[in-house]
Amino acid sequence: MWPFFPWLALVAAESGGAAVAGGPDPFRAAREHLVRTEVAAAGVTDPAVLAALRRVPRHRFVPERLVAQAYADHPLPIGHGQTISQPSLVARMTQFLALSPESRVLEVGTGSGYQAAVLAEIVREVYTVEIIAPLAREAAARLAALGYTRVAVRAGDGYAGWPEAAPFDAIIVTCAPERVPPALREQLKPGGRLCIPVGPVGGEQELRLLEKAPDGSLVLRAVLPVRFVPMTGRVASPP
After folding, report:
1. For a Cys-Cys bond, which of 30, 159, 183, 221 suits 71, CB 3.0-4.6 Å?
2. Does residue 156 form part of some domain?
3. Cis? peptide before 167, omega within 30° of 0
4. Which member of 85, 88, 103, 112 is catalytic?
5. Is 85 labeled as catalytic in the residue annotation?
6. 164-199 pLDDT tens trace
7. Residue 6 burial (10 A CB sphere; 0-12, 13-18, 19+)
């Protein structure tokens, strides 16, 4: 059972579950509180990442019945057996990528589109792949409605990445394979970073940060114990 936050429920009810486009934002204080008490406290110091978490309306990326939980620091179900990650983890993974305004980023595992929106607040181009077609369609419509025009959404198997748009300055994966897909390694630019959870279904997972050296080799660092939904598709049934 998720904890309940009555003050957020009141805001959600008064606003009809979302801020009116172009109007006052009743969730601004909730985002500020989240960033100050949870995200910054988790060690996130990058000003661009903190600013992105303050701007992205997470309540627009969760089911309406869970709007009152949108700015609590825990994952939430979004349907189809998938979840939206807790905000502090989204922020930490984004910070690990060491992004610049000119970065081009690939995300594998679009979900509801929240991580893609956070990235789009910081970088020039975001490409995001979601294997569950209804989620991909919903995320694309949601991102477009919120004005995130620099995000391209594709329904497909993220194991293959997005070869036509490669190489990428950074790649972020929000579902866990048991091994890093070779295509993602190949589609990373020299000097680029890949942030990915790795581990067996139902077992221990670790968040890994891989940085590609000029000679194409990868330097790997394990950064956090995590728990993500498994990556599905070809990676789940290797030849």
Report:
1. 30
2. yes
3. yes
4. 85
5. yes
6. 999 999 999 999 999 999 999 999 999 999 999 999
7. exposed
